[in-house]
Specification:
Layout (H helix, E strand, L loop, with lengths): L1 E4 L4 E4 L7 E6 L10 H19 L3 E6 L17 H9 L3 H18 L15 H13 L3 E4 L2 E4 L36 E5 L16 E2 L1 H13 L3 E7 L3 H16 L4 E7 L2 E3 L2 E2 L10 H6 L4 H9 L7 E3 L1 H27 L7 H19 L4 H15 L7 H18 L12 H15 L3 H13 L2 E6 L3 E6 L4
Parallel strand pairs: 3-4, 3-9, 9-10, 11-13
Antiparallel strand pairs: 1-2, 5-6, 6-7, 7-8, 11-12, 14-15
Helix pairs in contact: 1-12, 2-3, 4-5, 4-6, 5-6, 8-9, 9-12, 10-11, 10-12, 13-14
Length: 475
């Protein structure tokens, strides 16, 4: 398996530190507002990677943090805390804001069938670990105290800028913020901040204060995955300054290589435009569902392009995603019926070779830096052949269905939408209607539709001559 490593700027063979095991950390949400589709592209790429590693037989320990303090509005050391701004606007305390939007994030993640990480550590519950790491950095000469504040001296870390490609000369003081006279160097960043007006305060050896955003991930990843682990994921906006600073902190504190492989997801566009509040295109998952789009179609759309390419998200793309899923679901439903009702028999060589080739090609595609477009092409090639197996016996149908299920263990698009079992007589009627339409016997096709409706089922045509069955009352 090969992955593009942002740290080395090249595609590398993925070799876990421990055979058969993978430690993986993903930068999670700052919980001050409802997460939108732009946020979820990065989370879904992490989910796709995790599922694929498990598909390959690896045991993945996955940690995703919850940032509930210290993330300032400019992503650096200046400006207001994002949670405090939300708390003031909504007249609530920061912990209430954090819990409300954490619940919102978890709910939206479930809607998208994202597998829960092994732990969602919250920054506010790991202050002691952060203080200990800051003290270690001071003791080792990487950090210095000014009054009640603590800063990281970036000139002490030789590899600062290696991830992002920024040199210290590039990051000039006036590029993003006004010069802070307390700092030895304009590029130094805060590890611990003192602000009497801040609503969240903790005691420390340097006085009351709160942690800098960057130290949070270093401390929490170290606690749950160790000082050195395999994979760190996030959006491309995390590369600098956040991930650059994480490396400086963690390697300065431990003296070990922090992360072996860095994966970063490119930005999401909407209808060709940058996503922003002012444009009104920061859609949440719930808002898209309320517009009538399926949850699994949102997931499919967001994972359907390569993570290192900007993706243009559109409503037309969501409709196409629904049609693509329908094709997979209908094939799975038909095979499930064959598995139950077809004659017994053994798996023929042709079916065995078809299943083996599909799984092999699917594995090879995603092993090439998560080449999802190639992987999906493999899936639809398989479906074309599987749909030809009209006379498959029950064992062959089971093998073909098992192949689809193995693929879906990675894609995660059928599980949430396939809860209602379709009775054999309903499938038979739908197939009868399909045959009537193929024969252009519209009167017979309409009669079968009416019969299905009377039995409490609706049938909708999809491109390619297929159909989708839905029980009345199902979403």
């Amino acid at each position: 398996m090969k992955l593009y490593n942002t740290l080395t700027h090249k595609t590398e063979e993925f070799i876990p530190m421990q055979p058969g095991k993978v430690g993986m950390y993903s930068c999670g949400p700052t919980v001050y507002s409802h997460p939108h589709i732009g946020n979820f592209r990065s989370f879904l790429v992490a989910d796709l990677l995790k599922r694929f590693l498990e598909f390959k037989g690896l045991k993945v320990t996955h940690i995703m943090n919850i940032t509930d303090v210290g993330h300032l509005v400019d992503d650096a050391d200046e400006g207001a805390d994002k949670l405090e701004e939300a708390a003031k606007k909504q007249k609530k305390n920061p912990l209430e804001i954090a819990q409300f939007y954490t619940d919102s994030f978890v709910q939206a993640s479930r809607m998208l069938n994202i597998k829960s990480p092994d732990n969602y550590p919250k920054a506010t519950e790991h202050i002691n670990e952060m203080i200990a790491m800051v003290q270690t950095l001071i003791d080792k000469g990487y950090a210095y105290v000014v009054g009640h504040n603590v800063y990281y001296d970036v000139t002490k870390f030789a590899n600062y800028g290696l991830l992002s490609g920024n040199t210290l000369e590039d990051v000039n003081a006036g590029a993003r913020i006004e010069i802070n006279q307390e700092k030895k160097n304009a590029q130094d960043f805060a590890l611990w901040k003192h602000d009497p007006k801040h609503l969240q305060q903790w005691p420390s050896p340097w006085g009351n204060g709160f942690p800098g955003w960057h130290i949070e991930c270093s401390a929490m990843s170290s606690k749950y995955l160790g000082d050195e682990f395999d994979i760190h994921t996030g959006g491309e906006d995390n590369i600098f300054p956040h991930h650059e600073c994480e490396i400086a902190q963690s390697e300065g504190a431990s003296g070990k290589k922090f992360v072996h492989y860095w994966l970063h997801t490119r930005f999401l566009m909407f209808d060709g435009e940058k996503m922003s509040k002012s444009k009104g295109n920061l859609y949440t998952i719930q808002e898209l569902v309320e517009k009538g789009f399926k949850k699994n179609a949102i997931r499919y759309s967001l994972i359907s392009s390569h993570y290192r390419q900007n993706y243009n998200f559109t409503f037309e793309g969501l409709k196409a995603a629904e049609q693509a899923i329908d094709k997979i679901q209908q094939c799975a439903n038909r095979l499930a019926e064959l598995k139950k009702n077809a004659k017994a028999g053994e798996i023929g060589q042709q079916v065995k070779e078809l299943c083996d080739k599909c799984l092999k090609d699917f594995d090879e595609a995603l092993s090439d830096d998560l080449n999802i477009s190639k992987a999906l092409a493999v899936v639809f090639d398989f479906l074309r052949e599987a749909n030809k197996a009209q006379d498959a016996n029950s064992a062959e149908a089971a093998a073909l269905l098992d192949t689809i299920n193995k693929i879906d263990s990675v894609l995660g698009i059928l599980e949430a939408e396939s809860e209602t079992e379709i009775p054999a007589n309903i499938v038979e009627l739908a197939e009868k209607r399909k045959a009537a339409k193929a024969a252009k016997d519209w009167k017979a096709a309409d009669a079968v539709r009416a019969e299905l409706t009377a039995l409490g089922w609706t049938v909708a045509d999809v491109p390619g001559g297929g159909y989708k069955l839905k029980k009345a009352g199902d979403n």
